[in-house]
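User: Structure please.
Assistant: Input sequence and predicted structure:
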Amino acid sequence: DSIEMYSALATKSAALLRMKRYSEASAAVSSEFHNILQLGYVPLTLKCASPMLRAFMEDGRTDSAQIYMQMIQPALQKADQTSNGVIGILEVKAALLRSKGDYGQELALWNRLDTLVKTNGGIPEERILFYKADCHAKLGHAQTAFALMTNAYNRADSMKNSGMSQQRTEFTIEYNTQE
């Protein structure tokens, strides 16, 4: 079945991406991408595009990422905008905008992502705040950038501390159980 075969290619591409073998990761999918698009199955298109686009970006091949990003626009428009697949692709799009120095559009996209992830938590809030702060800084909005960055660090510290509190609670329960 074609869907299973292409799904396996997406998995292979993701594995190669994790191993930092970027050109192999992008090639695993790009060689078959026109066939994948012809199937018209949106979830498969997004599943295959995500590791390929990330590999292009990691490899510094933003021109290739831009070409494939344009090719998947129809699939992105049909997909549930709050799905992890769409959110992952939009993160790559934000990186593309950053690479072009288009910080205004990147900021608008991070604001959109901030709204979208409230339903599924697909991106940690402190990461969104960090990128929004960086965009504001690059746009010359120093006060806003500082406030957002402070908020990002406070949230990251809070998450870290809550994780430590959870570990301490689990340890206390385990220790008390042993006594």
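The longest helix spans residues 142-178.
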